[in-house]
Amino acid sequence: MHHSRGASGTREPAPETRGRVIRWARFYDAVTWLIFLGRAPAIRKMTLELAGVAHGEKVLDVGCGTGTLTILAKARAGPAGEVHGIDAAPEMIQVARRKATKARAEVDFRVALIEEIPFADGQFDLVLSSLMLHHLPDDLKRRGLAEVYRVLKPGGRFLAVDIGAHSHGHLLTFLFGCGSDRADLGELPDMMRDVGFVEVEVGRTRFRPLLFARGSARKYTGGSP
């Protein structure tokens, strides 16, 4: 599945977006390891536990970067599961595809934007976002959240893990381009509710300075939304 697009070695064009795009894919994993002091694997494990990835689920990772979290989600979803990852940077997707090939993981990686998710309505049980939303201005966050809601099945779940508002001065601020208004998950609950999410919550994680936000798409009752 992960050979379906761009596997010939030709670089795919980067889509236009006003969100910040990280292009230094070759160094991304090493930098992430350093800035989290070797805790990146534990943070990914925590993210998947917060998301509750289950066997057989269909999962989308938006802003998947070099694909490590996406591939781990596939391991949890199992052979019956279906996992996709999208990122705005072709360089990231190339690295992610190489990882999937090495791991023999059937994951579909595509160059695409959260504000224009290339899937039909109601496809996914779970959408993940890790260290990505702070790259978006508020209007793109709203569009992205609306797109996430659109592609979720009724009752499907969304989980975002991102940098808290009080991370100023942290190395993350310089390397990941966090702005004071973009790095705060505090405004996300209202945005999520505005596009239809229910059971919305924001909380701290055990890893400073990371927070999480999650919610569910409304379930249909009596045959009516």
Q: Summarize the amount of helix as a percent range.
A: 25-40%
Question: Looking at the structure, what is the overall shape?
Answer: globular
Give the count of helical stretches.
Answer: 7
Q: What's the total count of β strands?
A: 7
CATH homologous superfamily grouping: Vaccinia Virus protein VP39
Briefly, what CATH class? Alpha Beta
Overall structural domain count: 1
Sheet-strand content, in percent, reads: 15-25%
User: What ranges have pLDDT less than 50 throughout 5 or more consecutive residues?
Assistant: 1-9, 167-171, 177-183
Separation of the first and last Cα atoms: 33 Å
As laid out across the biggest beta sheet, the strand order is 3-2-1-4-5-7-6
What does this 3D model show about the protein?
This protein is an alpha/beta fold. The protein has a single domain (about 30-215), classed as Vaccinia Virus protein VP39 (Rossmann fold), CATH 3.40.50. The protein contains 7 helices and 7 strands. Strands 3-2-1-4-5-7-6 form a 7-stranded mixed beta sheet, sandwiched between helices.
